[in-house]
Design a protein that fits this description.
The structure holds two protein chains of two kinds. By secondary structure, chain A is mostly helical. Chain A has nine helices and no strands. In chain A, α1 runs antiparallel to α2 (28-48). The model of chain A is unreliable at 171-181 and 187-202 (pLDDT under 50). Chain B is an all-alpha fold. Chain B has a domain at 27-92. In chain B, α1 packs antiparallel against α2 and α2 runs antiparallel to α3 (58-88). The longest helix of chain B has 31 residues, at 58-88. The radius of gyration of chain B is 17 Å and the shape is elongated. The model of chain B has no long low-confidence stretch (mean pLDDT 90). Classes of the chains: A mainly alpha, B mainly alpha. Chains A and B meet through α1, α2, α3, α4 and α5 of A and α1, α2 and α3 of B.
């Protein structure tokens, strides 16, 4: 058996296990660990697909930032991050899940019935490297690239404004106009807004 | 050599797991993680399609922007979770009913 085939099936099985652990975990910390396992396996699959740059980005952004952000929030919430068991609405949720799974299986079958197996040919040596991706990103994707920087900026400011909650109103004084809270969060430097944000609300 | 269909099957399976998790689970944190699973599945299929046509890097570019959008989504989503917890002292999505009635 070829080593590439073993590599693919090993990573595919581990990513499915990670996804199942994420979805079925009662304790969100275990869910975050399952998500981490799935992310690492997907990065490995990106390597197998000659997408080296994306594999590194996947490790840095997902494993390094997103999972850590999840863990921060879970630790901030403490024991209450685990919701108590409750059986209300179980039937409707089960029906929704089954329907979704059935639709997905039907769509997968309809797609699989059509085509024949495509063997992949070996790409050029520079395929998927940072050089080639950078060329595409700054020629074809220049406008979306700039817009995504604005998106990230707005998301960070919005996250700070939302997570501060009532704290912002206290610092803005009583009876402040609702708009001024957002303006305050925007005009303050980031390090200034940080200490009053998440910790003091608890 | 692995055919591209196997990547697509894996992507479909992961997407289904994430979608069922999002519909069935009521812990908001787990629901957000399920969305992550779904978006990762989409990333796999985008990169696999790009591998099928290696003349350009359109698919990998889309995956790159998807990762950026997802980072923004997680930041705002977790801020909303914190805000919900501050108001209702819970992380269950069905108790977020402030707009009900």
């Amino acid at each position: 058996m070829n080593i590439g085939i073993i590599y693919f099936w090993l990573l595919a099985a581990m990513s499915v296990v990670g996804a199942l652990a994420t979805v079925s975990a009662r304790n969100p910390i275990r869910g975050a660990m399952g998500l981490l396992l799935m992310i690492l396996c997907v990065a490995g699959l990106f390597l197998a697909l000659h997408a080296e740059f994306l594999a590194i980005i996947q490790l840095i952004v997902y494993a390094g930032a997103i999972v850590v952000l999840f863990l921060f929030v879970i630790m901030l919430l403490g024991p209450s991050a685990t919701a108590p068991r409750d059986h209300r609405g179980q039937v409707s949720r089960a029906v929704a899940g089954t329907l979704f799974a059935a639709c997905a299986a039907g769509a997968a079958y309809a797609v699989a019935r059509g085509g024949h197996m495509l063997a992949l040919r070996r790409p050029d040596p520079g395929f998927g490297g940072i050089d080639a991706i950078g060329r595409t990103l700054f020629s074809d994707g220049l406008v979306p690239f700039e817009v995504s920087s604005a998106l990230l900026m707005v998301a960070v400011v919005g996250a700070v404004a939302v997570a501060r909650g009532k704290q912002g109103e206290h610092t803005a004084g009583t009876g402040a106009h609702p708009l001024s809270r957002a303006e305050l969060a925007e005009s303050k430097p980031f390090h200034d807004a940080q200490p009053g944000g998440l910790g003091e609300g608890q | 050599m692995i055919p591209v269909q196997h990547y697509l099957y894996l992507s479909a399976l992961l997407f289904t797991i994430g979608g069922v998790g999002f519909l069935v689970r009521r812990n908001v944190l787990v629901a957000l993680m399920s969305i992550e699973v779904m978006l990762n599945a989409v990333n796999i299929s985008l990169v696999a399609f790009n591998r099928m046509r290696p003349e350009n890097h359109g698919g990998q570019m889309f995956a790159f922007f998807l990762i950026a959008a997802e980072a923004a989504e997680v930041a705002v989503g977790l801020a909303i979770v914190l805000s919900l917890f501050r108001i209702k002292r819970t992380v269950r999505s069905d108790e977020a009913d402030l707009l009900k009635n």
